[in-house]
Specification:
Helix content: 25-40%
Radius of gyration: 23 Å
Number of domains: 3
Structural class: alpha+beta
Number of helices: 10
Strand content: 25-35%
Shape: globular
Number of strands: 23
Largest sheet: 8 strands, antiparallel
Distance between the termini: 31 Å
Strand order of the largest sheet: 17-16-13-9-8-21-22-23
Length: 420
């Protein structure tokens, strides 16, 4: 939170004092403003706090709509970079629903110190302890208040491989995702506002518009796309630098309508594992393990990524070589959230961009399992609106979406103007 400094010019007891927010250093620059006598000496620029009704509304959506917490259900609330006001709101919502709340407070800078010199034994033990706790939980709410997207950038790649192999794979992919009700989200921060090139106040308004939208309305509009995908065999994706063909025959289509991610807004399926052929060029930056990947290009043959290039080709190939499944696809999805129209360098938002799609190397979800297992699940985003260069998606030989807009009559309800 940003604060102004106030110098009290009044005479009498306390004259001449200076007040400043905690964490402020007198060596840092400050703006001195006279405060009217009798007014508070320190006035915050922003006031996002527990009194903001949007916080309670979001907590209510997560607990009662997304997870539908019932009496006696145990809920783990994991907060990465602590936001006490929101954690308290979640606790109140869980207890109000009759559930039992448990808390895990994390900090990216502390975890950096933990992992940068961590041994394989340490990663394995941490994973074992966290798996044991997760096994006791009925539900999970995980959120991050982003401070620095690159906080882990200088953790050695071999340590990140251990993190993905043990903690991410065993705790989350193998235990949390298939065995608990879960929802993950972000919480607004100055860093996120900066990535979006917005003021903090404007970003907060955007955040709550996105996260508290009418997900029930979105859910109903997704049904025709779910039906169409369930009856589709051949898919073709066209665009600048992209000509990709694949099959989704026999695989289910899943709508994401606010029950697993907030913000939400995607319908996903998975390719038949060995059916993918052609070239795919992504146009949206992606932060992965503290590095910003751009200009990612994959070439596929019989499902496998046989050639991968990016702004750091060596680094991206090291990620894809973490295990055999990392070079095959685990997800194929449409993004439809009408409030998200440009990248924020945050996958949880970017994969929902209206008019986008994400095609994901790595692990396939159990509810749409194509046989691919991996410790990697990397949602890379391709925007197809006109401003991003356009593109087409064909389903069984029919043009379904062009330049980011659905053109089949039964799918027009998913265009942005019909979801707001």
């Amino acid at each position: 939170m940003d604060w102004k400094l106030y110098l009290n010019p009044a005479k009498g007891p306390g004259a001449g004092w200076i007040s400043f927010a905690h964490g402020f250093s007198m060596q840092e620059s400050a703006e001195f403003v006279e405060a009217p006598v009798g007014r508070s000496s320190v006035i915050p620029e922003r006031s996002l706090s527990m009194t903001d009704p949007r916080i309670a509304k979001l907590a209510d959506i997560l607990v009662n709509y997304s997870l539908k917490i019932g009496k006696g259900e145990k809920v783990l609330i994991q907060d990465n970079n602590p936001e006490p006001d929101f954690v308290r709101a979640l606790i109140r919502a869980v207890h109000g629903a009759g559930g039992l709340a448990f808390i895990a407070l994390r900090d990216k800078t502390v975890e950096r110190e933990l992992y940068i010199d961590g041994t394989e034994e340490q990663f394995a033990l941490q994973a074992r302890f966290e798996v044991d706790r997760m096994k006791e939980m009925d539900a999970y709410i995980g959120f991050t208040s982003l401070r620095n997207a690159f906080a882990w950038k200088d953790i050695p790649s071999e340590k990140m491989d251990l993190y993905n192999k043990y903690i991410w794979k065993k705790v989350h992919i193998e235990q949390r995702v298939p065995h608990t009700k879960w929802v993950v989200l972000r919480y607004p921060s100055a860093s996120m506002a900066q990535n979006a090139a917005m003021s903090e106040a404007a970003f907060e308004d955007f955040f709550f518009d996105v996260c508290t939208m009418d997900y029930a309305k979105m859910s109903a509009a997704m049904n025709p796309l779910v039906t169409l995908l369930r009856n589709t065999d051949r898919v073709r994706v066209l665009g600048p630098g992209t000509d990709l063909s694949l099959s989704i025959k026999g695989l289910p289509a899943i709508k994401c309508d606010g029950t697993m991610n907030i913000p939400d807004g995607e319908v996903y399926t998975a390719p038949v594992r060995d059916s993918v052929n052609g070239v795919l060029s992504y146009n949206t930056p992606s932060e992965k393990d503290g590095f910003k990947f751009e200009n990612v290009r994959f070439e596929f043959k019989n499902g496998k990524i046989i050639d991968a290039k990016a702004n750091d080709t060596k680094r991206i190939n090291a990620i894809l070589d973490i295990d055999e499944g990392a070079r095959y696809l685990g997800e194929f999805a449409f993004g439809v959230n009408p409030f998200i129209t440009s990248p924020l360098l945050d996958t949880l938002f970017d994969e929902k961009i209206a008019g986008s799609m994400h095609i994901t190397p790595g692990n396939s979800y159990d509810d749409c399992f194509n046989g691919n297992r991996s410790s990697l699940h990397w949602d890379l985003v391709l925007m197809q609106d006109k401003a991003a260069g356009g593109g087409e998606i064909w389903l069984n030989g029919r043009l379904a979406r062009k330049d980011g807009r659905f053109v089949l009559p039964e799918l027009e309800g998913l265009n942005p103007e019909n979801l707001k």
